[in-house]
Amino acid sequence: MPIQEGFHNQRLTVVPRRVVVEAISRPVTRRLMVTDTGYYPNAADHLMRRPSGIEETILILCTAGTGWANVGGTQHRVGAHTALVIPHGIPHAYGASADNPWTIWWCHLRGADLTELIEEIGAGASRPVVPIGRLDRAIALLDEIVTILERDHSPASLMGAAGVAWKLLTQIVVDRTMPVPGDPLQRAMAYLAERLDRTVRVADLAALVGVSPSHLSALFRRATGGGVLAHHTALRMAQARNLLDTTDATVAAIAREVGYPDPFYFSRHFKRMHEASPTEYRNRAKG
Questions:
Q1: Predicted pLDDT at 2
Q2: Which of 109, 187, 188, 281 is 20 to 30 A from 227 (CA-CA)?
Q3: How far is residue 240's CA from residue 113's CA, in Å, rounded to a whole number?
Q4: Is the dihedral of CA 251, 254, 258, 261 positive or negative?
Q5: In a 3-state reduction of DSSP, which class is residue 13?
Q6: 67 with 97: CB under 8 angstroms?
Q7: Do the beta carbons of residue 100 and residue 39 sit within 8 Å?
Q8: How far is the C-alpha of 163 from the C-alpha of 271, rounded, in Å?
Q9: DSSP β-bridge partners for residue 78
Q10: Percentage of residues of the chain with pLDDT beyond 70
Q11: Can you give the pLDDT at residue 28?
Q12: Rounded CA gap, 56 and 53, in Å?
């Protein structure tokens, strides 16, 4: 139940341990569940020490101010727009800075899938502080978790909170791989998206955004799983599918629209990617 003490306007709810034990044996919540969660605004003098760690993994989202953490014997600064992730069982201490106390949303997590999710975030005992790309989105998700568990700790609420926690963790992963506005990857992606009707040379694009071709290719592989040209081709094919689905334009006209002057080459390329010719794709039942 919510606890009405501590920091002014705080929110806090702790799932009873017997309920946690029951939930961790059920099909969905055994994979991921929230055991504790809350919101501490302007948390002056906030301090927590756990010399032996705890059973849960801790996620603390710092939205304003600063704090610190000692994880496994190493000191770290925690600033706004970052998350502190402390794996279960790791000795730790953390707290608000004296001159600019942090505001935090936080949750404790358990579950069989948690180790892989934390690995995908890129966090661990040696690197517990990770940047948050979309702070507003992360706040909204943690707010939803707190709201759900403030209501009750029924199996349905625990499952709902687990679903939002899954979204929160995967969103942190996605946001970390996507480009920051104005950086070379974002500018390169925007350039490609605006030029679907032509081919683009990697060397020219790299020079335009101010990095080497090899570095640009590495940025694209990290963000998309493929190279620069593979990403551009995917964008062009997505536009081709959209035109096939939403217009009655000829295949030749669509080919020109997405930068293929030869409609036969376009059709062969399209079929290689979609296992159907443009005409076959257009005639498929969808939805």
A1: 40
A2: 281
A3: 38
A4: positive
A5: strand
A6: yes
A7: no
A8: 37
A9: 67
A10: 98
A11: 92
A12: 9
pTM: 0.77
Name the token pair of 4: 């009405």
pLDDT band at 176 (very low <50, low <70, confident <90, very high): confident
> Under a CB-based contact definition with an 8 Å cutoff, are residues 263 and 286 in contact?
no
Residue from 70, 162, 173, 50 nearest 113 by CA: 162
Burial of 128 (0-12, 13-18, 19+ CB in 10 A): buried
Q: Tens digits of per-residue pLDDT, 220-274? A: 998 888 999 999 999 999 999 999 999 999 999 999 999 999 999 999 999 999 9
Q: How far apart are CA 227 and CA 233, in angstroms?
A: 10
Tokens 């290719």 sit on residue: 217
Q: For residue 187, how many other CB atoms are within 10 A of its CB?
A: 17
d(CA 130, CA 62): 11
As beta bridge partners, residue 95 has 47, 68
Q: How far apart are CA 97 and CA 65, in angstroms?
A: 8
